[in-house]
Amino acid sequence: MDLAVGNIQAGDNAAEGAGEKTPTPRQQAVLDAALGLIVDPKAALTMSSLARAASCSKESLYKWFGDRDGLLTATVRWQAAKVRGRPVRRGELDGELLKESLERFAADWLTVISGETSVALNRLAIGEAAGGGTGRNLGRIVADNGPLAMGRRLTPLLEMGREAGLLAFDEVTEAFRDFFGLVVRDVQIRLLLGDRLDLSPASIRADAARATRQFMALYGAHQGPDGPALKMKGKE
Amino acid sequence: MDLAVGNIQAGDNAAEGAGEKTPTPRQQAVLDAALGLIVDPKAALTMSSLARAASCSKESLYKWFGDRDGLLTATVRWQAAKVRGRPVRRGELDGELLKESLERFAADWLTVISGETSVALNRLAIGEAAGGGTGRNLGRIVADNGPLAMGRRLTPLLEMGREAGLLAFDEVTEAFRDFFGLVVRDVQIRLLLGDRLDLSPASIRADAARATRQFMALYGAHQGPDGPALKMKGKE
DNA sequence: TCAGTACCGTACCGTACGTTACGGCCGATG
DNA sequence: CATCGGCCGTAACGTACGGTACGGTACTGA
């Protein structure tokens, strides 16, 4: 949450597909109040409770966001806009920098998914994905800003590592998904199911280092006399 | 779903902590109808809809299950009782059998979590875990029959592998969690978020083989002249 | 035959919530 | 100063749902 907070304020954001306008400051305050209600375990996000919490009228909520689904969509988008990370700078890439970058990715990701905001938002999107016919954009938006966003951010680094002869893989997508699994393991599903799981900064650092070490053991291009530890080509 | 269906019918099940009686056949039919409603994307599980679908009265639902939460709990328990797997038989364990057992575990698990029943039930439990004060047993029950059950089933096999000198690890829990991550990766969270993801039997088999191969590369006790590929002790 | 039991079908109640409508306040604009 | 648009606060409406009550039916056992 507190990592790489980069609010898009100047200019219009050309990204994000269909033209979605950035909310006004007043609307941003409302969306922050909505996030607070979503996160609070003993509070439910209803249009009335949000109007009360944000000191605005329900009429304004409907005018600004259309309906409840539009409000949820805008809230998810607003939160997603807050946690965007910076891309890796191209250029010199040696083994040490690659390892540090991977560890940083892993630690950042564990920090994000263990945050109460991320847990609450994923729960909301998953609950929304249960109903088939309703506005199921939520699940896609969260997925886009969840695992898929991590993939988009990590893929260039992995390919740079391959170009530099530090990594060996055929499909960058598969390499990323393995890294994802080594980092997340059962943490996210257990958090979503309500399991108490203390993710202290120290344990996050240790987990990030472990995942990176394992990933390098699987995909590192060892320059030693023996080849890579794991051959990816050929089936069986 | 269709793997290792072992209905507990004879005698009372001494397991499962607080004494929970096995439902009568009529109640089992009702619980199956509840599962059908939970799975159906365009149907919601309400007491009325379940009474209609199961051709029973709401009064009977409340008499049998107490309240809505009891019904959900019983439904989750009922489904969990259906997918229990068999333990691995002790005795001779060589490298080939270990590999086959791991692959079987991985394939079984991918089959379970990609089943629509598992997805729907996990969604339900996650949605229920959002409200803090309500009967949050659901999340714990699903977790107990989800990752934790897989851990309980897999741990003995891993320790047998270590005793046989085939695996090398310090903490069996950590080894299991790594295996879990290699198997599940981002599949479960994407399925929960509504992502379409074709898990054909062929791809499941391939994924199970890949995860097992990677796990053995990380944790296998190589009998070659060089030591294990990954030292687990010592930090940094 | 008659009481008892278990169950179905349905009507009903209270509440929560999404959504709409209305009255009042305030700053801007002419 | 008058008017207008944006917004707040609140009341009101319709619906959905959890939970309860009641009448009707089939079966059992004395």
UniProtKB/TrEMBL annotation, chains A, B:
DNA-binding region: 46-65
Domain HTH tetR-type residue range list: 24-83
Keywords: DNA-binding
InterPro entries referenced in this protein's UniProt entry, alphabetically: Homeodomain-like_sf, HTH-type_TetR-like_transc_reg, HTH_TetR, TetR_C_Proteobacteria
Gene3D superfamilies reported in the protein's UniProt record: Homeodomain-like (1.10.10.60), Tetracycline Repressor, domain 2 (1.10.357.10)
The keyword S-adenosyl-L-methionine is annotated on this UniProt entry: no
Alphabetized Pfam families for the sequence: TetR_C_7 (PF14246)
Domain of life: Bacteria
Keyword Endoplasmic reticulum applies: no
Residues passing through the membrane, by range: none
Single GO MF annotation: DNA-binding transcription factor activity
Protein known as: TetR/AcrR family transcriptional regulator
